Amino acid sequence: MPIAHRIHDALERASWIRKMFEAANILRAERGADAVADLSLGNPSNEPPSVFYESLREEADAGEARPHRYMTNPGYPEVREAIASHLATRTTVPYTADDVCMTVGAAGALNAILRVLLDPGDEVVLQSPAFVEYPFYVDNFQGQTCVVPPRPDFLPDVQRIADACTANTRAVILNAPNNPTGRIYPERTWRDLGRALASVSAGLARPIYVIFDDPYHHLWYTDAPPPEPARSYDQVLYVTSFSKDLGLAGERIGYVAVHPGAADRADLHRALPFALRVLGQVNAPATMQRVAARLIDHPREDTRAYYRLRRDRVFDALDAAGLDFPPLEGAFYAFPKTPIPDDMEFCRRMLDKGLVLVPGTAFGCPGRFRMSYAVAEDVLERGLKILREAL
Length: 391
Ligand SMILES: Cc1ncc(COP(=O)(O)O)c(C=O)c1O
Hints:
By secondary structure, this protein is of the alpha/beta class.
C-alpha cells in the first residue's frame, strides 16, 4: 500500500481515540460528569508515591547544588549508572551506564531509536493489535510498517514475524504487558523469537533489532514478574518510562538501554544521544532524571495492588457478562470481543449510554473493544454497571 494511504489509514484508526475523547467531553457537558464513565484512556489514575514528592522538595531545597542547565545529551552519569545497575540486577545482563540514554518518556526513546536505525524505505515489523502511535513514529523517518497478526491467544506468532522480515527490516517493535490486550509474553516466546531473528539476521548484512517497549513493566498480576527478553536475544533495545506505574506520564521521563551484546553497541551509544539533539529533545528533563534515579528501585506493590483491585472487578464483570477476553495479565487494559460483530457500532451504542470505550478497529483489530481500568473506582463501577445493563 502506498505510504500516504497507510498513514491515512493509521490516522483514521488513531482518530478513534480522539473522537471518543471529544465525545466524552460533549456527553459530560450535556448530561453531567456523573452520567459518563470514560474508560477510553491510558492515562494512569494512581498518584505518584510519597517519595516522589519528598524528592521534589529535596531538589528544590538543594538550590544550586542541583543544576537545571543542559547536561550531556544521554543524561547525568550517576542517573544512568543507577539505571544500569537496576537493569543488570533485574535481567542478569551486564548493562553499564554507557548503555543507558535518558529520554523524554518511552515515546521519546522510540523516536530516537527509529531516527538512528531507519533510512527511508527501511521496514519495521509490528504486531497487531498495536499501540496506535507506532506507525506514526515509523513514518516520522520515512520507514515502512509491516503489521503481522498475532496468534489467536494474542501472543506473538514468531514464525509470522520471522517470515515478515526482509533484507530491509531493521526492527520488530513488541510491547508486553501489552496495550491493548493486557497479555504478557512467556519466556518461551522470547526464546523462540530470539532464535528465529538470530537465524534471519545471519543471512543479512545488518541485525534485526527487537525494540522492546516496556512502559507497563511493573504492572503485572501473574505469579511472577514478566520475563526479560534481553536474556534471550542480544539485539534488544530496551525502552521504558516512569509514566505508567508511578503515575508520572506528564513528567516525560524514560530511557533506552542498549543490550551489551548488541552488534552496533558503540555506534548506538554515540548515535542515540545525537538523535535526541537533532530531534530537539536535547536531553531528558533534568530534575526528573534525578528523581527517577531515586525511584528506580522503589517497590511497586502499592501500584500493583491499586490496579489489581480494578483488574479483578473488570474480570468479574466481563466474565459474568460471558464476554470472550484475553487473560488480564498486566498493564491496565481489557480487550474483549464485542457482542455484535461491528465494534464501532457497539462503541457508539455504549457511548450513547455514557460509557466511553475504544473500538478494536483503532488498533487494527476489529470485533473487539479496549477498556481501560486506569480510572477512579466509582468511574469504573459506573462503567461496568452500564456494560452489565446493556448486555
Ligand atoms: C505501548 C506504549 N508505548 C509507549 C507509550 C508512551 O509512553 P510514555 O508516556 O512514557 O511516552 C504508551 C503510552 O500509552 C504505550 O501504551
